[in-house]
Amino acid sequence: MSLVTRASLDQKLALAKRCSHEGVMAGAKAAVLATVATAIPTLASVRMLPWARTNLNPTAQALIISTAAGMAYFIVADKTVLASARKNSLYASNRSNTTA
């Protein structure tokens, strides 16, 4: 493998790691926000509404909250990674057009 292709592969690997790290961080932030945004109304409704008090045991409450957090994490992480990859792809194509 030539030195140029090795450097190119290393650069692509570094970009991929950065994209995935950005996705993880954005997903984690979204999951925390979704947890708080879901926990407050869920716990408040269990305290105030007779139907919720009767039908939503602690397991159901935890399931509601964790489902919202999980969905937020994966949706935001996926969108962040795709946006970052798209940006890097456009940057790479613009860079190759200017050097050619």
Would you kindly provide a brief summary of this structure?
This protein has 100 residues and is an all-alpha fold. The chain is 94% helix and 0% strand. It is rod-shaped.
Give the key terms.
rod-shaped, single chain, mainly alpha, 3 helices, 100 residues
What are the SSEs and their pairings?
Blueprint: H1 3-48, H2 50-55, H3 58-99
Helix pairs in contact: 1-3
Describe the 3D structure.
- By secondary structure, the protein is mostly helical.
- It has one domain (17-95).
- Helix content is 94%, strand content 0%.
- The protein is built from three helices and no strands.
- It has helices at residues 3-48, 50-55, 58-99.
- 11% of the residues are buried.
- InterPro entries: Enod93.
- It comes from Rhynchospora breviuscula.
- Pfam families: ENOD93 (PF03386).
- Keywords: Membrane, Transmembrane, Transmembrane helix.
- The chain crosses the membrane at residues 21-40, 60-77.
What does the radius of gyration come to? 22 Å
Overall pLDDT = 89
Order of helices and strands: HHH
| Terminal Cα span | 22 Å
Question: What's the total helix number?
Answer: 3
Structural class: mainly alpha
Name the shape in a single word. Answer: rod-shaped
Q: Using DSSP, what is the number of strands? A: 0
Largest sheet: none
- Report low-confidence residues grouped into runs of 5 or more: none
Report helical residue fraction: over 70%
When the domains are counted, the total is 1
Pfam family, one: ENOD93
Protein name: Early nodulin-93-like
InterPro entries: Enod93
Organism: Rhynchospora breviuscula
